[in-house]
Amino acid sequence: MKRSEESTFIALLALTLISSMVTLKNSESNTTIYALLLILWAVKFILVAFNFMELKKANLFWKVTLGFVLTLILTIILLLL
Amino acid sequence: MNTAKIDYKNIYYPPGGILIWIIIFLELITFGMALVAFVHDGTKDYETFHRAKLQLNTALGLINTVFLLSSGYFMAKAVHEFEVKNISKASLYLKITALGGLLFIVVKFFEYSAKIEHGLTPDVNSFYMYYWLLTAFHLIHVAVGIVIILWTNYAMRKPNSGTEAEEVKTCGAFWHMCDLIWLLLFPVLYLIF
């Protein structure tokens, strides 16, 4: 449990670092880069929900519903871009 | 302290309780719909949104992300320590969590001050209307979260406290919700366009 919290935190910081490097290296507008950034932040969202909020212990319904809401929001945003 | 085990696999008992999860979903859908509207308007007035985005301080946004993620980590640790009945450690971690939230508010204060100084108020253009509306609404959630954390900490420290692990988990779920909302807001507001 303790190790899981620590590894999740390290993964979250690493993903933040990677996404900031991607942003700094690509200042021009590019839909592929936007998609990559949104996916990186979606992974962080999933890590917080499943490990910090302990959603991994919950009924499948809650996991699927959260995944559905996140996918729906990101898909609409990516389609609009 | 009630240590009765809850079966989280039961659909009615997600960790933290069903009511907090209904609130979390409502909040995520509300912010998500606002972000969709933001992107929709941005694609129609790309130049304005692009110029406005360049005026945002991405470094401050990233620092705030680290503050929120760190405080979320300490909140998860606080819940774990409370579950193993280590109240003093749980209390310490809750205080660090609240400190992370306070630092987030301090950084936001500097960010808002700079925006107001440069006349970048909500009536400048639609980008700033969304920026102020969404970030200020999120900031209110962080402030409320800090109050809930400090109250939970006060309640659990009282002699013969009746605070249960599930109540600390609910407090944690609310705080992590602030993380989740920020993880949706930050890339859309600060990184795209």
From TrEMBL, chain A:
The chain crosses the membrane at residues 34-53, 60-80. GO terms for cellular component: plasma membrane. It is a multi-pass membrane protein. It is found in: Cell membrane. The keyword Cell membrane applies. Keywords: Cell membrane, Membrane, Transmembrane, Transmembrane helix. Pfam families: COX4_pro. This is Cytochrome C oxidase subunit IV. It comes from Flavobacterium suncheonense GH29-5 = DSM 17707.
From TrEMBL, chain B:
It holds the Pfam family COX3. Keywords: Membrane, Transmembrane, Transmembrane helix. One of its GO terms (biological process) is aerobic electron transport chain. GO terms for cellular component: plasma membrane. It comes from Flavobacterium suncheonense GH29-5 = DSM 17707. It comes from the Bacteria. The chain crosses the membrane at residues 12-39, 59-80, 92-110, 130-152, 173-192. Belongs to the cytochrome c oxidase subunit 3 family. GO terms for molecular function: cytochrome-c oxidase activity. This is Nitric oxide reductase. It is found in: Cell membrane; Membrane. It is a multi-pass membrane protein. InterPro entries: Cyt_c/ubiquinol_Oxase_su3, Cyt_c_oxidase-like_su3, Cyt_c_oxidase_su3-like_sf, Cyt_c_oxidase_su3_a-hlx. Residues 20-193 form the Heme-copper oxidase subunit III family profile domain.
